[in-house]
């Protein structure tokens, strides 16, 4: 693997046929060899050590999805840990983010009688993977000529264009943002509307003693949206454990973890001048650090 330039990720699949003889797998030695040849590579398997399987092949993460997990509880090919892989562990001591794998077709291999999944299905997968703190990996099988089928390539292009259309415009930037408190001048809620989704963020005051934290967007004009995006400052860990979303005091969504990105799909909502979209953080591991907020319209 040292003949391909810089390789970002290598997969070690934990699947094994039911009638396959038992044998010893030297995963530890293989991982060490991979790191020798590609020092910055991410190794994927049921047990990480850098990226973990999400526990199913639907492309769906758990409604609760932690990047942390206990590596000592993981082993490759162990079907009893699939649920644990799907949710992660809030008390986990290892940072091993999940990756959702799914095929663009019904199965993993190309068949002449099959067609790629509908755009609506792929978008649903996106919201349930990327929108739940995961990486999404889509399998696109070569056809009998060794090439990617035109129908698959066309659907991928359509998928990419749809994602761009949904998230290109952040309607929250037409809003005024305020919060329950702020930590000094540097960590104000306005940081959630800039282009930096990693190093700038809102942090509440360390002296805040309320039962919950909140950050809200107050509209300055009429807007229409149906997606709410929340992102934590993931470089400083994953903290949010429970949150709710309100539009003018009416609860419209709730969830547990946020992580790098949480996407909530709502019914199409039109709100007028001076309306508010409030995110309540009811439980967190320490003060929540929110790096980005978004209101988007999904026409699909």
UniProtKB/TrEMBL annotation:
F5/8 type C domain boundaries: 178-283
UniProt keyword annotations, A-Z: Glycosidase, Hydrolase, Signal
Annotated EC: 3.2.1.51
GO process terms (BP): fucose metabolic process; glycoside catabolic process
Gene Ontology molecular function: any one: alpha-L-fucosidase activity
GO cellular component, one term: lysosome
TM ranges: none
Domain Glycoside hydrolase family 29 N-terminal: start-end pairs: 2-159
Enzyme class per UniProt: hydrolase
Superkingdom to which the source organism belongs: Eukaryota
Gene3D superfamilies on file: Galactose-binding domain-like (2.60.120.260), Glycosidases (3.20.20.80)
Family recorded in the similarity comment: Belongs to the glycosyl hydrolase 29 family.
Protein name as catalogued: alpha-L-fucosidase
Organism: Genlisea aurea
Source lineage: Eukaryota, Viridiplantae, Streptophyta, Embryophyta, Tracheophyta
């Amino acid at each position: 693997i040292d003949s391909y330039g810089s390789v970002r990720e290598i997969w070690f699949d934990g699947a094994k046929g039911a009638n396959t003889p038992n044998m010893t797998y030297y995963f530890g030695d293989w991982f060490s060899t991979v790191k020798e040849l590609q020092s910055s590579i991410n190794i994927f398997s049921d047990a990480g050590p850098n990226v973990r399987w999400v526990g199913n092949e639907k492309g769906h993460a758990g409604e609760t999805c932690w990047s942390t997990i206990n590596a000592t509880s993981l082993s490759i090919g162990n079907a009893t840990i699939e649920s644990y892989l799907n949710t992660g562990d809030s008390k986990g001591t290892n940072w091993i983010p999940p990756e959702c794998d799914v095929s663009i077709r019904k199965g993993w291999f190309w068949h002449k009688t099959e067609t790629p999944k509908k755009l609506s299905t792929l978008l649903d997968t996106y919201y349930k993977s990327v929108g739940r703190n995961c990486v999404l990996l889509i399998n696109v099988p070569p056809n009998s000529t060794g090439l990617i089928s035109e129908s698959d390539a066309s659907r991928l292009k359509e998928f990419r264009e749809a994602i761009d259309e949904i998230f290109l415009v952040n309607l929250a930037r037409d809003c005024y943002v305020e919060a329950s408190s702020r930590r000094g001048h540097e960590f104000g809620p306005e940081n959630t509307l800039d282009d930096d989704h990693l190093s700038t963020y809102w942090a509440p005051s360390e002296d805040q003693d309320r039962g919950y934290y909140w950050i809200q967007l107050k509209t300055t004009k009429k807007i229409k949206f149906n997606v709410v995006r929340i992102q934590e400052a993931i470089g400083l860990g994953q903290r949010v454990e429970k949150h709710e979303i309100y539009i003018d005091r009416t609860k419209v969504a709730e969830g547990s973890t946020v992580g790098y990105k949480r996407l909530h799909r709502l019914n199409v909502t039109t709100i007028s001048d001076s309306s508010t979209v409030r995110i309540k953080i009811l439980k967190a591991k320490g003060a929540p650090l929110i790096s980005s907020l978004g209101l988007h319209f999904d026409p699909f």
